[in-house]
Amino acid sequence: MMDTINILIFPGLIFTIILALFVAWVDRKVTARVQWRVGPPLLQPLFDFTKLMGKETMIPGQATAWLFYAAPIMALTGALVFSFTLWNANLYPDNSMVGDLIVVVYLAMIPSVAFMLGGLVSGSPHSVLGASREIKLLLGDELIIVMALMVVIIQSGGSIKLGAILDYQRTYGAVAWSPSGMIALILAILAMQAKLALVPFDMSEAETEIMGGTLVAYSGPLLAFFKLTQWIMRAMLPLLLVHCFWGGIIFSSWVSILAGLGKLLVFWVIMILIRNTNPRVRIDQALKFFTVWGGCLGVLAMILAMLGY
Amino acid sequence: MSLKIQALTRSIWVYHLATGSCNNCDIEILDCITPRFDLERFGIQLVGSPCHADALLVTGNMTTKNIPRVKAVYEQVPKPNVIIAIGTCALDHGMFDGSYTSRVKVDDILPVDFYVPGCPPKPEGMIAAVAKLIAQLRQ
Ligand code: SF4
Question: CATH topology for B3-138?
Fold first, then answer.
């Protein structure tokens, strides 16, 4: 019974979706405030989603229809399974399975792959361009995420269990408060920026350049699924950061749950501010940034972590 | 009023289509989303692809060469949608009246729902049009 509630209501499906809608609103509101605007009302993402669900779906003539339908569903499924795994590790640290850190990294990749697939089969030159950029970007940011997580693994004594990482931080303090942890956190935030397609790494969706990239040919409910996936990832990747670098969310009382969600919002607002104060870089600049600068800093952080700093 | 229409009136995504305008109307449209007017308060957003749009803003005097392109874009806008003709040009050619490049008007080709006159119309005018449009959709 408790399991069912945990999966379907709190902190599973329904709570994740509410959190995702809220996070999407925070994004638009903070962006609006940065630009001295008023910004949309709290329920705006819900209106957008409902409206898209009620619209007609159009399949472009050149598209491969079954993949065109399958990609949004695959994206949403991937994002939801990712969120379940993370919530489960936060809720029952002792109960998490061996190696779920690696599983989580793979699950976080599924929405990106689905976006790519959707872009590649929809038969529009803009979306194919967006998909090819997404592939290249994935090569860059995955490397950085893995390096940042390596620092966490080394610090918490070589464990690849999400639960064990939490236990370590609850006894010895958050990973982010050590020099190596701080470097890894900064790298991870930048890599998440790329994973979530936020400026400065939003070339796969550059609205002013390739008109929304991978999503250009999607409409109606399929677009709604993609949008929801995007919002869920925008809530869950900061949660992964909170989990690995800042002690996770402690489910003992309402106060501690709210404090945990507060940490999540802190990371998310940092990402929004980076997004609002930077220009878009080119794909080759992004790759060079990730492989050269990111790679060097990542190795440095790993060495520091091994030396015990 | 159905839930569909209710959600639509609170989240109108706009695709803006220039059919041979002098570009001034287009600039005035962009003014509507600047901090001074901030149409995002009402959930109105400019989108980059006609497939995402709910409202098609047509500006300009519809040159002959643009007719097939305009039709192609219109076919990509998913239903339910509204079409708004912006500027005197889009209404009846305005200052380009009698030009050999444009023989037809926008509403000969597209089922226009709303007309906003002016050369160019002020952002206030467009916002008034959108407010009336929302009121009408809600009925
Ligand atoms: S109505 Fe006036 S401002 Fe608008 S496109 Fe025509 S000439 Fe330009």
Answer: Rossmann fold (3.40.50)
